[in-house]
Structure prediction request, 530 residues.
Amino acid sequence: MSTFPTVALDLGLALDNRFVRSLPGDSETGSRRRQVEGALWSPVLPTPVAAPRVLAHSPEMADALGLDDATVASTAFANVFGGNALAAGMMPYASNYGGHQFGHWAGQLGDGRAITLGEGVAADGRRWELQLKGAGPTPYSRTADGRAVLRSSIREFLCSEAMHHLGVPTTRALSLVATGDAVVRDMFYDGNAAPEAGAIVCRVAPSFIRFGHFELPYARGDVALLRQLVDFTIARDFPHLAGEGEGEALYGDWFAEVCTRTAAMVAGWMRVGFVHGVMNTDNMSILGLTIDYGPYGWIDDYDPDWTPNTTDAQGRRYRFGWQPRVAHWNLSRLGQALSPLFDDITPLQAGLDAYADTYARLDRGNIAAKLGLPDCRDGDVALMQRLHGLLQAGEVDMTLFFRGLADLDPAAPSLDVVARAYYDAEKRDRLRGEFDAWLRHYATRLGETGESAEARRARMRAANPRFVLRNYLAQQAIDRAEAGDPSRIIELLDVMRRPYDDQPGREAFAAKRPDWARTKAGCSMLSCSS
Ligand code: AMP
Ligand code: MG
Prediction:
């Protein structure tokens, strides 16, 4: 490692690299592909790139890390976040985890194209880990190259920050760096591999530990390593629990918190219309953060059966409407992995029950907030179910409908406020009577609350975003960037920084999916090739 360049870069982060300092590592350095036993990480350096160039960065994330504009604009920054140099104190590594993919145990997976540069504490006391995605091969790259293409990197960079601003727990993104190197990908898995522009995103989170980190030592019967990782995770990532007890009681409390955090994340997804697309257990964060933005997508017309992931087109396991139950299944896999630490698995069952209870409560909260009600009664659940049925049958845009509904006058309920949300005039006309009946019912319920129109509007506008990162918007930014103009990435990021504000002049970014985007690759269909 000594020959790798180190540059002066003023990070406002005191790097303590706790993960590598506290947990057992691999004795071999470098990217020779291998099974790594008895270790949770492998030391590996980024592979240098031809010409690192910062295309975009997140101002909020730079701020949180204590990086000023001059630093972000420096050559040193491009070199470090393009993988060509390290800053003092960084200890790069790839971590070792397994996972269930599409319902099946897949064995060791690990950071095949992610390399953590360092981990530490910012001036405000918050912990952050800096991780490059696409910085070259690691021991876990299996048959792949460890790289990422520009299109998928733009999507991860933008969506990480968009989700944060929407108030949904997520890993973050600091920077998007073009590498100047080509990456070969077979985008449609049809034998037509072609070179594409490469890029590297620097992801940031308090922790990148996944369910799969616990599943792998469990699968290998390495209970000592499993226990060591659990103790470390509680101490570093759940410090408020440490001292609350010990042994099974502490582990039980911790598992319950993982369950409730996961419920909060999924409830956030369902509120804003986000479809993760690849909810494998290696893509589930122990902190309940949305992680690994691959073939994700956003609901345009409301459809609980939709998935953007063409690799999952057959079973559609990860369809929008199934996400709450898939999260429960994934938590069950985590619970199973933790079971050797328990004599009595009652606390694990209690954690799973806490997931179900928390999700049910948050779902009711979503119903109340989205409909602008002070609370959610049983009748409101039915009201929302009927609406969902109508939105699906009528091919109605989810985001536009709920945002428009805030403007309804309960004294004179009219579909005019949601006129823009319909994709199909024939379906709209056919279902007009049913929509009108629903609106009257809803208006009556609003009348019963005794609340002012202003209070209701405020509640609805805080829960129903005006701007989401629609698939076609991201694709437009990608098309332009691939043609040499990255300005749309920055503009789109800027819009997504205030998703609940109206932002006059930026109406185009709130427009429903245009017809051309309905079946275009990247807009409605995404493969895992990234
Ligand atoms: P994903 O489906 O993106 O969550 O990836 C599943 C596994 O494949 C993880 O272990 C990734 O690190 C690995 N992987 C995905 N793409 C690449 C790549 N281009 N190079 C190396 N490993 C990869
Ligand atoms: Mg992954």
